[in-house]
Amino acid sequence: MTDPDPVSAGPDPVGAGPDPMGVWRRIAGTAVLLDGFHALKHAVRFGAEVPVAVTADRRATLALAAELAPDVREALDALLTEVPESTYASLVPRPHPTAVAALAVRPSRDANLRALAGTPRRAPVVVLDDPRNLGNAGAVIRLAAGFGATGVVTTGTLDPWHPTVVRGGAGLHFATAVERLTVAELPPGPLFALDPEGEDIRGLKLPDDAVLAFGSERSGLSAGLRARADHLLALPMRPQVSSYNLATSVAMTLYHWSITGGASGAR
């Protein structure tokens, strides 16, 4: 006798959607995992297609939506299916405190590439050059979405749509264009790369069509990206302090852009 399918065990699901576990099994290999209430909230708010969403406590989740995101409560009411806690836990790498998970359709790569390449741009593109830390990449995507950046591009082997990155980004991948490209494929625009040997950023105004590149957490900019850069920029830093966290560097740079006439700063 074989063990029951972990996503089928337990009482029948309660709430929206026919056979949500069947939908989950069918699309899990290609869909984007939305891990937690906030990831689902942002995905829905920014127009993601969400075929299936589950929670271990539907009533509590909808109460949370009414409190924190009333604009999407009705949509979540239509989407959410309550499942046993053990079923929910089997669907995610690490259960989220909100006990919510969903699968979303990944945005079209072609559409993202058009958004990244389109000119004139009203906001910069952020480039993470061969990043290594999944959580840092997610934090950067969350920042970029908050500043209204055109998109976030990664080079190297890190998948910017990895579930840990999406969790770190709180589902805000759907609020901006997120893709992995090579240095040769980077979007058009003046390339400003952050480097300790660069010019102090406080003396510059960053244009809206800038491509802002940040090196990896350990090794900095790759030789290929550094060679392609039009400008090297440095953030103000006290002597003997070795570096800032990657997300902090991105935040400081986007804030500088926004307060020196950037389009998102004018909104």
In short:
This protein has 267 residues and is α/β, with parallel strands linked by helices.
What does this molecule look like?
With 267 residues, this protein is α/β, with parallel strands linked by helices. The protein is built from ten helices and eleven strands. A six-stranded parallel β-sheet has the order 8-7-6-10-9-11, with helices on both faces. A five-stranded mixed β-sheet has the order 1-4-3-5-2, with helices on both faces. The protein is elongated. The relative contact order is 0.14.
How many β strands by DSSP?
Answer: 11
- Major β-sheet profile: 6 strands, parallel
Weakly predicted, low-confidence segments? 1-11
Content-based structural category: alpha/beta
Overall residue-averaged pLDDT value:
90
Any idea what the radius of gyration is? Answer: 20 Å
Number of helical runs? 10
Order of helices and strands: EHEHEHHEHEHEHEHEEEHEH
| Lateral arrangement of strands in the main beta sheet | 8-7-6-10-9-11
- Helix content range: 25-40%
Share in β-strands: 15-25%
What general outline do the C-alpha atoms trace? elongated
Q: How far apart are the first and last residues' alpha carbons, in Å?
A: 62 Å
Write the layout of secondary structure elements.
Blueprint: E1 14-15, H1 20-27, E2 32-35, H2 37-45, E3 52-55, H3 58-68, H4 73-79, E4 80-82, H5 85-90, E5 100-104, H6 109-117, E6 125-128, H7 134-147, E7 151-154, H8 163-168, E8 177-180, E9 191-200, E10 211-214, H9 223-228, E11 231-234, H10 246-259
Parallel strand pairs: 3-4, 6-7, 6-10, 7-8, 9-10, 9-11
Antiparallel strand pairs: 1-4, 2-5, 3-5
Helix pairs in contact: 7-10
